[in-house]
Amino acid sequence: MADIVRRNQAMLLPAEKQQFIQAVLELKRRSLYDQYTSVHAQAPENYHQMPRFLPWHRIFIARLEAGLRQVAGASITLPYWDWTVDRDPSASIWSDIFMGGNGRTGDGMVTSGPFAGADRWRCIDPDPSVPPYLRRQFGLNPNARALPTAADVDECLRHTPYDSPPWNGDSDPSFRNSLEGQIAPFIHNIVHRWVGGSMDRPSAPNDPLFFLHHCNIDRIWAQWQQQHSTQGYRPNGDGPPGQNPGDLMPPFDNVRVGAGLDHRQLGYVYDTENPTAQGDRMLPGDTLRTNDAIYSPNSQYRLIYQGDGNLVLYRVSPFTPVWASGKMHTPGMCVMQMNGDLVVYDSGGHQVWNLGFTGRGNRLYVTNSGTVQLVNLAGNVVWHSPQAVMA
Predict the structure, then answer these.
(1) Residues 267, 273, 278: CA angle, nearest 5 degrees
(2) What pLDDT, in 10s, does the model give residues 81-112?
(3) Which of 166, 283, 287, 367 has the fewest other C-beta atoms within 10 Å?
(4) Contact at 8 Å (CB) between 216 and 52?
(5) How far apart are CA 54 and CA 6, in angstroms?
């Protein structure tokens, strides 16, 4: 399993969102955050409308993530914003404890949340006429009245090859150009324009939302790479200078395009890739495969997805079953679904058992008292197994 799991921001607990925000603010306080904005603002022609658009940004946001972890600890990961679901101004991403909301009428200044006002979050731009405060203008751009839909993403994912001559904004067919937004269904660019304000400039990282947006773009590329594993990156040696896997990718020192082609080699996966569950919990997307287990914090109880397909909670000493799903089958995997249900699949991918409780963001825990608990985003227990009877 990769060390880092990038998760949907909508599935994070309020405390986890606040932890991320505090890490961003600390990076800003140390005068490190603005370095990322400067890099992106200085030469947009070096990473837009060209094949390396996706690997360049993969490296870029991974470096921001590494910076956050350096100032705030290894538990920090970069969340993504799935704008196909959380797509209106009432979505939880715009809460005052997270990204803050839309800008005010007129000058677009964001007046809510941790990045409101130049006194709290000062923006930088090569153009001195650009205001120093964060600006947003949701849906005012006539070319971006609505965010991309799930159908738009599905259409984009069907595009092959990765790229094609002339290796620029006119390339068609081209998955890269479709995802970047130069050809239909115009994914990436529309999001920047829909948010507007600071996000609609080369200095877009002034808005921390930039990194959540590009994290989702990177996730979609990872999904395309999995679905089209025989396609690969193009060009592969026959493209313009700077666009081939072996070419250097400025301004990153000694980093070549090929370094950004495999996200797993960079040490992270997404929650939509069924990461292996760890510790005492299963978060949305987390998975147990044959003989995988999670433990209670006191190590006295173990939930195992067994080789016979049964999901069983055991007391460790003496080793005794406490609760079980009661389904035997050829084992596949046990998944904490994004819709909040715990589902077991056989080796053929068929659902053979489920808990039957849904709620976006639910998590499963093994407790010190010998129960399995399903907990919602509000922290309420919505289901639990019978408590172990101590001998």
Answers:
(1) 70
(2) 999 999 999 999 999 999 999 999 999 999 99
(3) 166
(4) no
(5) 17
Provide the token pair at 82. 């799935």
Side chain identity at residue 120, one-letter code = R
Measured from the Cβ of residue 384, the count of other Cβ atoms closer than 10 Å reads 15
Q: What digits encode the pLDDT tens for the residues 115-158?
A: 999 999 999 999 999 999 999 999 999 999 999 999 999 999 99
By CB neighbour count within 10 A (0-12 exposed, 13-18 middle, 19+ buried), where does 135 fall? buried
Angle, in degrees to the nearest 10, between helices 53-72 and 33-42: 170
| DSSP codes joined into one string, 149-201 | PHHHHHHHHT--SS--TT-STT-SS-HHHHHHTSSTT-HHHHHHHHH-GGGGS
Beta bridge partners of 346: 331
Which two structure tokens, joined as six digits, stand for 285?
């997307």
What is the C-alpha separation between 71 and 33, in angstroms, rounded?
A: 11
CA neighbor of 8 nearest in space, from 339, 262, 287, 341: 339
- AA letter at 89: P
Q: How far apart are CA 210 and CA 288, in angstroms?
A: 33
The whole-angstrom separation of Cα 155 and Cα 84 is: 13
Q: What is the per-residue DSSP string for 116-156?
A: -STTTS----SSTTS-SS-B--TT-STT-SSPPPHHHHHHH
What are residue 110's DSSP bridge partners?
Answer: 103
Give the Cα separation of 391 and 389 in Å (integer): 6
- Return the structure tokens found at 159: 């595009």
Q: Which residues contact 207 (CB under 8 A, 6 or more apart)?
A: 115, 134, 136, 195, 197, 198, 199
> Closest Cα partner for 165 from 228, 236, 217?
236
Q: State both tokens at 330.
A: 């050829």
Give, for 19, the enclosing helix (H) or strand (E): helix 14-29
What does each C-alpha distance from 25 to 21, 98, 201 come to in angstroms?
Answer: 6, 12, 21
* Calpha distance 194→146 (Å, rounded): 7
Token reading at 359? 């709620």
At residue 1, does pLDDT exceed 60?
A: no
Largest CA distance in the chain: 74
Q: 25: number of CA atoms within 13 Å, CB side?
A: 16
